[in-house]
């Protein structure tokens, strides 16, 4: 996929010649993608694959029931599960601590875990599944971009700290507050505003998302500096 994109940019560069010099952003993107492709070919994947050493991957396969420790990044509650995103995670192997990047943990029971809380959790580690059918959503690639290569199922909290990050928790509470306000004020259009303001697309209707894609306006649903400034301008005009 990455090689195909680079090939398209190179073809465009050759076809248009000097016009590309007027597109400095395109040149920067082309250079970055070329670096990513070379790093991938050199065996150093930046946004895909599992960068953990083979010995660590083999150990996890042989010993899936493990204990990990990390810092709570955020929690996510759905109709069917309650999960915690951990960062700076390390695997407890006898007396050693092996770093394994970030992990999403599915807990057996829902617990209040403020952002920044240090926790130790026992459960079953499983590598994020790859797509089974052509064209299927690539969960492994999606989570690899977040440096998450493993899920932990049936997690049980063994220990947790009383100290947490007040600043990070404030931001999460603010996000939840905005989410509630949008629900009450925007009604059925709330998922669209949530995608624009919060980057939250979980409640966005797939049919509506497809319509935006077909109209070539799916970028409206993504957070950007321009979108943020537009909202600031509109709010400022309203207040004035």
Helix content: 40-55%
SS-based class: alpha+beta
Order of helices and strands: HHHEEEEEHEHHHH
Q: Supply Rg.
A: 22 Å
User: What strand line-up does the widest sheet have?
Assistant: 1-2-4-6-5
Mean pLDDT: 79
Outline, from the CA principal axes? globular
Distance between the first and last residues' Cα: 49 Å
Tell me about the biggest sheet?
Answer: 5 strands, mixed, barrel
Task: Itemize the secondary structure elements and their pairings.
Elements lengths: L1 H15 L7 H18 L12 H9 L2 E13 L4 E12 L2 E4 L2 E6 L10 E10 L11 H6 L3 E13 L5 H21 L3 H8 L8 H9 L10 H15 L1
Parallel strand pairs: 4-6
Antiparallel strand pairs: 1-2, 1-5, 2-3, 2-4, 5-6
Structure characterization notes:
The radius of gyration is 22 Å and the shape is globular. β1 (65-77) and β2 form a beta hairpin. α1 runs antiparallel to α2 (24-41) and α5 (166-186) runs antiparallel to α6 (190-197). The protein has 240 residues and is α+β, with helices and mostly antiparallel strands. It has a 5-stranded mixed beta barrel with strand order 1-2-4-6-5. The protein contains 8 helices and 6 strands. The mean pLDDT is 79. The chain has helices at 2-16, 24-41, 54-62, 139-144, 166-186, 190-197, 206-214, 225-239; strands spanning 65-77, 82-93, 96-99, 102-107, 118-127, 148-160. The longest helix has 21 residues, at 166-186.
Main attributes?
240 residues
In short:
The protein is of the alpha+beta class.
